[in-house]
Amino acid sequence: MSNKIAIILLVCIGLVLLLAISELPLYGAPDNSAQNYVSERYIEGAVSDTGALNMVSAIVIDYRAYDTLIETTVLFTAVIAVFMVLKKAPDRKGEPK
Q1: Residue 4 pairs with which residues in a beta bridge?
Q2: Residue 10 CB: number of other CB atoms within 10 A?
Q3: Measured between alpha carbons, how far is 53 from 48 in angstroms, rounded to an integer?
Q4: Within-domain flag for 84
Q5: Taking 60 as the threshold, does the pLDDT of residue 92 lie above it?
Q6: What is the pLDDT of residue 97?
Q7: Is residue 68 part of a domain?
Q8: How many domains does the chain have?
Q9: CA-based angle 38:42:45, to the nearest 5?
């Protein structure tokens, strides 16, 4: 019974993915749809909106600041987790091995 449910679920997920892929524009084809308004807004207004001299810095620091903050937090958490996993356990006398 569970195998049939798993197969039905996988087929449904596959159909949703195929429908999503069919909506993507062709690779390399110019697309003038609503998907380009964000990049056009960044290119046209990055310097005037933010006062930054560099467009990349304006996008990363001003437009995407919260995203950058969250990415930095995730990276910091991952580094701390790696250090905790690789930390040497103390021996019976309480001294590191």
Answers
A1: none
A2: 10
A3: 9
A4: yes
A5: yes
A6: 56
A7: yes
A8: 1
A9: 125
In a domain, 10, yes or no: no
User: What are 12-46's pLDDT values in tens digits?
Assistant: 999 999 999 998 877 777 766 666 777 788 888 88
Is 82 inside any structural domain? yes
What's the DSSP call for residue 35?
Answer: G
Give Cα 46 distance to the centre of its chain.
22
What lies within 8 Å, CB to CB, of 89 at 6+ separation is: 97
In the chain, the largest separation of any two C-alpha atoms, in whole Å, equals: 70
CB 47, CB 58: distance < 8 Å? yes
The Cβ-side half-sphere exposure at 77, using a 13 Å CA radius, reads 6
* Two structure tokens written together for 27: 């690779």
> What span, in angstroms and rounded, lies between the C-alpha atoms of 63 and 45?
11
Euclidean distance between CA atoms 18 and 11, whole angstroms: 10
pLDDT for 62-83, tens place per residue?
888 888 889 999 999 999 999 9
Structural domain boundaries enclosing 75: 37-88
